[in-house]
Amino acid sequence: MRRVLFTDYDGVFHPVSDLKWFEMRLPLDECIKRGRLFRWTYVLAEILVQHPEVEIVVHSSWRLLHPESKVRELLGPLSDRFAGIVPREYDRVDGIARYILTQGVADYRILDDHPECFPASPPELIVCDSEEGVFDHAVRERLREWLEG
Question: How far apart are the first and last CA of the chain?
Answer without folding.
Answer: 14
